[in-house]
Amino acid sequence: METKPRKNKFFQEHRYWVWLMLALVFFFGLVGRFYDFDDPPLDFHPTRQLHSMLIARGMYYEGLEDAPPEQRELAVHQWKSEGQIEPPIMERLSAWGYRLFGTDDLRIPRFLSIFFWTIGGIGLFYLMRELVGEKGAVLGLAYYMVLPFPLYASRSFQPESLMTAAIIISWWTMVRWSKNKNWLNAVIAGITAGLAIYVKSPTVFFVAPALIAIVVTDQKLIKTLTNRQVLLIAGLTVLPALIYHIDGMYISGFLQNQTSFRVFPDLLKDPFHYLQWKDVINSTLGIEFFLFSIAGALVIKNKPYRVMVLSIFVGYFLYGMVFSYHIITHNYYQIPLTPVIGIGLAACAAVLIEKLPGKKTFGLAVLTGLTFFWMAFNFWDARMSLKHARYHDQPGFYAVLGEKLRDYSVISITPDYGYRLAYWGWKPTQNWMSMGDFVMREMAGMDLDKNALFAEALEGRELFLVTDFAEFDRQADVKEILLENYPIFEEGDGFLIFLLR
């Protein structure tokens, strides 16, 4: 009696295709992130990165016994002078890394950011596999790992990589709890959701809607509002951030001065504001991807998860309404939108793959080619951008300036609020406000007398430093006052110093 040969399930289900695509996705994603790895971290929102660099260095120098006392004191002072909004987790981890390697090497925080983003990618793949299947998940992961904007963002010394990974893992643990509602899964879901909000409180707009959606679409849970597991998850979700904010606002007080210029309700009345918001989405994550991902969420088969993903988009909209100024001026506020767009695209891809006729081998081969070329083009664009954004001369330039200005009281127009001079030159200065600062204050309803503010800022200062000549030219009135009333103390390649005495 003849027996039919058994088909290999691995090949029958095209598992080889999943593994091949995962290898390609992580190859392009990681090689792109490690390209130009030792360039100073000024290629993405340098002001925000330098803020973290000063904090981490101060933490490191605080316990560096062989450092010169004056230098250690200055490093700690710079750290303590920086305002704190979210817990300095990335800064503390970087300081531990500095101690481990014996140097404040800026490649350490860059590696940590890449590491957390990659962990988030792994978690996102498992989450999308639960929601739409592993074939669609691979294509959603390609968006998350290889799109240029997230690639740049995930190299930066900010909490965003850790925050995004924490959001993704909280979604995943919520899904796992919804499938198996035991106490262990409830504790894990609550802890991970609480961690995400603790890392950066605005993540509540991405975490809370997901949890609420899962609870209210589950018929067994909605029957009672006192379900003990739901209450446990809710308590663990809010507790860490609640303790942090009570301490920051009412006990230690370090958050009391950090709430200014956060909310601009007048922007919400301006139709042009929403066009700007659309432009920011388009320039960072792609408006077409954004719209397709919302459509993709509609085809997720399991109702609780479909509602969960759609609710996260609603949470993003509320997030943008609350942070109306930052959503159009700080493009890194789009970063937590990246994984949910990936989920929506994965759902679209899963439907497409499901509709492929026959054994799907030819269709998957075509998808492989298309995805490969899309990733290759994005990888090359990111590589060229990083290649041409060279900052290796900045540390030396500002170190020399710091020596020139060591014994003087200085006010400056320099990039990033004087942070480059403070970090590499070890020279804190008073930074004169930029045109953007004036615009923001006017939007907040403040009436400013620029001439009076400038005269007040010059009092007691000996030198006026200019290294940001584009900003210097934008403030023609300030430029005229300095050129007509104060002699040049020293001028060189990339800097101009006026004598104020």
Summarize the structure.
The protein is 67% helix and 4% strand. It is mainly alpha-helical and 501 residues long.
How would you portray this structure in words?
The model is unreliable at 1-8 (pLDDT under 50). This protein has helices spanning 9-12, 15-34, 46-62, 69-81, 89-101, 107-132, 134-146, 148-153, 160-179, 183-199, 204-216, 219-222, 228-251, 271-284, 287-297, 303-322, 326-329, 338-354, 361-388, 394-404, 419-424, 435-443, 450-458, 469-474, 476-485, and strands at 410-413, 430-431, 463-466, 488-492, 495-499. It has a 5-stranded mixed sheet with strand order 2-1-3-5-4. 67% of the residues lie in helices and 4% in strands. The chain has 3 domains: 11-37 and 111-388, no CATH class; 46-105; 394-499, no CATH class. With 501 residues, the protein is mainly α. Strand 1 (410-413), helix 21 and strand 2 form a beta-alpha-beta unit.
